[in-house]
Specification:
This protein has no helices and 21 strands. Helices cover about 0% and strands about 55% of the residues. By secondary structure, it is an all-beta fold. It starts with a strand and ends with a strand.
Length: about 250
């Protein structure tokens, strides 16, 4: 404590004391304040990642100080984004001014916006709470890329045959991903060998990683070499393009 003498009256300042000693002194009790910091980090791709919050006292106390902490959802959800921490008592022994609280964040490969959860402080003893909430920000560290397959098949002798191209995302996304596609001639000619597909938007809803694109090929009896056309991807939103051209090969069966 600090001793201040004024007009023959001695004042003893006790940091966090419960009561003054009964010795005739004039005693002022100063209660320390408690604050908790914010934490921001990437989640990682797998397994848990520890987000460590620091709870601090404004000064050391001469008696134990306690405070209760617990997690709460923000845009991040307990169980899927992080592991909930129930109400738990944190104790500062006399002289301690810093303690840590750990919350495990669950890593994944999903492309999503930054998400938040909170650590709330309550019920302090022998101290007051100056900052009752620490915010944990899980920053996105994932990306997703589009690829389209090639297709090779015989055309058939009559009627039509469907060439089915598969468009895939390397990782799922928490929001819609869109990409545009259209056919283009190679040695195969639209109208004669296949039916052209104009510029069309393909949408992946949250969680989807695979969609298909159909192109109708026309059968005939002509003896001709293998012919090709392409399906090209363009203008992605929410993803990048890793392989943007699908090659359709019409093999001769005549």
């Amino acid at each position: 404590g600090q001793v201040v003498v004024a007009s023959r009256i001695r004042t003893t300042v006790y940091q966090g004391a419960n009561q003054a000693p009964d010795n005739g002194q004039v005693t002022t009790v100063i209660r320390p304040t408690i604050v908790i910091n914010n934490v921001s980090a990437v989640e990682g791709n797998s397994g848990p990642k520890a987000f460590t919050f620091t709870v601090t006292l404004s000064g050391a106390a001469v008696v134990p100080v306690t405070v209760t902490y617990a997690t709460g959802n923000g845009s991040a959800l307990a169980g899927s984004d992080y592991t909930a921490v129930p109400a738990t008592v944190l104790t500062f022994t006399p002289g301690q001014v810093s303690k840590t609280v750990t919350v495990n964040v669950i890593g994944d490969l999903t492309v999503e916006a930054n998400e938040t959860f909170v650590v709330n402080l309550s019920g302090a003893t022998n101290a007051s709470i100056a900052d009752s909430q620490g915010v944990g920000t899980i920053t996105n560290d994932d990306a997703t890329a589009l690829r389209i397959s090639d297709v090779s098949a015989v055309e058939g002798n009559t009627g039509t045959k469907t060439f089915t191209f598969t468009v895939t995302l390397s990782n799922p996304s928490a929001t819609n991903v869109t990409v545009r596609y259209a056919t283009a001639n190679g040695t195969a000619v639209a109208g004669t060998d296949y039916t052209a597909v104009p510029l069309t938007t393909l949408t992946f809803t949250p969680g989807q990683v695979s969609r298909t694109v159909a192109v109708v090929v026309k059968g005939d009896l002509l003896v001709e070499p293998a012919e090709t056309f392409t399906v090209a991807l363009s203008t992605p939103v929410g993803a990048t393009i890793a392989d943007g051209v699908g090659l359709g090969t019409i093999t001769n069966d005549d």
